[in-house]
Amino acid sequence: MFWWKQILIEINLIVLIAAKYPEYNEGYSLSVPVDHFAYTISDTFKIRYFYNLTFYKPNGPIFFYPGNEGSLEVFAENTGIIWDLAPKFNAAVIFIEHRYWGKSLPYSDESFTALSRIGHMTSIQTIADFAIILPWFKQIYNISQDSKIIAIGGSYGGMLAAWMKLKYPTLIHGVWASSAPVVWFNGGGTPLGGYGSRVQKAFKFFGCNNSTILFDGFNAISNLGKDDQGRQKLTNIFNINPKTPLNSENDVKKLLTFVQTAIENLAMTNYPYPTSFLTSLPAWPVKVACSFILQSPANPSTEELATLMKNISKIYFATNLTCLDAMICGNPENPKLADVWDFQKCTEIIIELCPMGPPNDFFPMLCNDRESFLKTRKQFCSNNYKHIGWTDNLMRENAIQETYGWDFTQTSNIIFTDGTIDPWGAGGVTNNTPGIMDGQKRQIFNFIIEGSAHHLDLRQPSSCDPENIKNIRYQIVQILKTWIDPSLPPYSSTALPPFAFPNVTDCEYLYNQYPWNQK
Ligand SMILES: *[C@@H]1O[C@H](CO)[C@@H](O)[C@H](O)[C@H]1NC(C)=O
Ligand SMILES: *[C@@H]1O[C@H](CO)[C@@H](O)[C@H](O)[C@H]1NC(C)=O
Ligand SMILES: *[C@@H]1O[C@H](CO)[C@@H](O)[C@H](O)[C@H]1NC(C)=O
Ligand SMILES: *[C@@H]1O[C@H](CO)[C@@H](O)[C@H](O)[C@H]1NC(C)=O
Ligand SMILES: *[C@@H]1O[C@H](CO)[C@@H](O)[C@H](O)[C@H]1NC(C)=O
Ligand SMILES: *[C@@H]1O[C@H](CO)[C@@H](O)[C@H](O)[C@H]1NC(C)=O
Ligand SMILES: *[C@@H]1O[C@H](CO)[C@@H](O)[C@H](O)[C@H]1NC(C)=O
């Protein structure tokens, strides 16, 4: 689920590839209650934040990133657009860490070991933390109390930003929620197979005319995995780490998950330029995967298919040895941390998705309706959290609907952006989401970016960004200007240019070069 946990059941929302490191100071907040909503405990803790006031001028806004599921550095380093635009807007910048992540642990290492402690890991507690810290931040750094707060977040961070606008309308002035699957819940209208079909779409879009071969590849791995001889072949082909041997068909399932994870992550991080941080990826990694597919023989043998799957997986997981459980062979920074997003998946964040197999996608089918999805998820949660007291009743299938919902008819100033080849894009708002179709009169925008991967728009601008990415950033700057300066007329969005490959190959990050040489 996280970069230090190589292998997971299902892909998580964060992306981990950085540009130049931003510069900021680190601070710890005032004490906040572990439980904001009841009076049975009086425990408090402090939350970490990063800030930079270098560009702030009186009347400037605050660009606030609501930390999502990871250590705060990951978000500070992968949201270049905030640092890039801060000088232009005379903005103060603050990133606030999500509770139970990084250095914001209510009960240090013991935060995860009992339901009475980890049970305070919820989105609503988290945004309540943010809502206390933001006014305090203004006060202690002498930022005007009138300074407008613009929440900018990607993925789950984008969901938190949008939810804050609904819950704290007078605190949050505007939101840029990128790749935030806010309707991917029961009743939101996103198809169960949406994730897998987007991955398949990404492979088609970027050059694999016929990706059926990937389904054949998964079958080849399963078939080889049925006996010892085949498992030995797989061990050789994938160079399996001896610490996670392939001894049984169950172990082979972990290998299937490993390959699935790699393929999903290639689609999610299919960025136009090479990215290198914790995992090193070429430009357009899906194109690279497709080049392997296009080169494969006409009637590949089972072993050739397995080799193809290995070649593709290694684009994402570039390590020599294939580890099937990073908790066993990796050096996880803090193994306990890796479980907290999973805990949210087992309590409130019930994003309903499943690989379903052809024609929806090229993955082995895991479930095919809501009931089988819930059954699979509950089994996962029981395996992981029964020992700390998790029961089926703690999985509240409608928690997000009941806590926030997705009715945007009574709110304003929200920009949603989604990429057409981002697997998470399937769960973004649509014209059927209440308040979206007629949203512009309340300055609610829904931009769909052709060919764009997971929150590409929030990254540091690059000379290799397609025109539609440059254009969306440009339009968003115009929108932000009108939110901050009420004397300006409201903004009307225009259609984004179609996707086109940039004809530049020598990619470089562009710092402070708004409007980025748009055509
Ligand atoms: C804020 O960011 C600017 C630009 O990266 C940098 O010059 C400055 O030193 C930073 N301030 C702090 C306090 O890190
Ligand atoms: C804020 O203003 C007060 C009073 O003018 C001053 O004492 C304090 O040092 C300032 N704090 C910061 C962080 O600039
Ligand atoms: C992919 O399909 C298109 C249209 O069906 C065809 O024109 C093109 O030649 C195909 N490309 C490859 C590499 O097979
Ligand atoms: C796609 O490839 C598979 C084999 O991987 C083949 O059986 C199928 O006929 C191909 N489909 C098309 C439309 O070429
Ligand atoms: C896998 O990669 C190796 C090394 O790059 C290459 O020689 C081989 O042809 C590839 N095989 C398949 C099936 O993609
Ligand atoms: C990768 O593993 C193989 C087989 O164990 C070994 O021969 C090779 O030297 C390793 N390559 C690297 C770069 O470590
Ligand atoms: C890229 O396209 C522009 C025109 O759109 C052209 O002037 C330029 O020469 C092209 N560059 C390359 C490297 O092809």
From TrEMBL:
InterPro entries: AB_hydrolase_fold, Peptidase_S28, Ser_carbopepase_S28_SKS. GO terms for molecular function: dipeptidyl-peptidase activity; serine-type exopeptidase activity. Pfam families: Peptidase_S28 (PF05577). Keywords: Glycoprotein, Hydrolase, Protease, Signal. One of its GO terms (biological process) is proteolysis. Residues 1-19 form the signal peptide. Belongs to the peptidase S28 family. This is Lysosomal Pro-X carboxypeptidase.
